Amino acid sequence: MRQEPLGTIWRSGAPAGSKRAPEGLWLGALRRYAVASALGHLAWELAQLPLYTIWYQGSAGEIGFAVAHCTAGDLLIASTALLGATMLFGNSCWPASRFYVVGAATVLGGVLYTVFSEWLNTEVRGGWNYAELMPTLPLVGTGISPLAQWIFIPCAALWWARRQTLRGSKMNEGVL
Question: Burial, 164: exposed, middle or buried (Cβ in 10 Å; 0-12, 13-18, 19+)?
Fold first, then answer.
């Protein structure tokens, strides 16, 4: 086996400049995704409060608890969707490789769960209610805001996580 000079090896062992994507970047990307996702979902939860009846009927403590509870749930859903998508469609070189298929599966998982959860909690359990301002999808009644949240936030978080992770791996190798 040919030995590469020091400084020309990616952390994965692939020679610098090779067509092979670097391995071992997934953990950093996962951490970055979790942070971006948590911050994005927190901001979204705060912004969409007037679309729920709790904004008008709840106390400050109830509203604060709802935001914290929903943001924690969003992070759990986001992490589970990404983990499942990565296990099904990713590889050891993710996010440098198979990024878009993992990303699409992550978003799809989050959207499908959201449609189910919003229906379950607004129509069946009555866990929360939409205010008059919330636009909803015909037939299923899912709010447009939570649906948009589960398209926009995961896409933005995945993009940022990949960008920062790949940028960091190149900086560590002296490429940038």
Answer: middle
Query: Structural domain boundaries of the chain?
Result: 29-169
Q: Which are the contacts of 41, defined by CB distance < 8 A and separation ≥ 6?
A: 70, 71, 74, 75, 78, 149, 153
pLDDT in tens, 40-78: 999 999 999 999 999 999 999 999 999 999 999 999 999
pLDDT tens, position by position, 94-131: 999 999 999 999 999 999 999 999 999 999 999 999 99
Biggest CA pair distance of the chain:
70
Tokens of 4: 């590469």
Which residues have a Cβ under 8 Å from the Cβ of 37 and sit 6 or more positions away?
A: 74, 75, 78, 79, 153, 154, 157
CA distance 67 to 101: 31
Tell me, yes or no, if the pTM score tops 0.85: no
Helix and strand totals (H; E) in the chain:
5, 0
**Cβ atoms of 76 and 69 closer than 8 Å:** no
Query: Residue 162 CB: number of other CB atoms within 10 A?
Result: 21
CA separation for the pair 113, 24 (Å, rounded)? 29
Residue that has been written with the tokens 């992070």 in this structure: 75
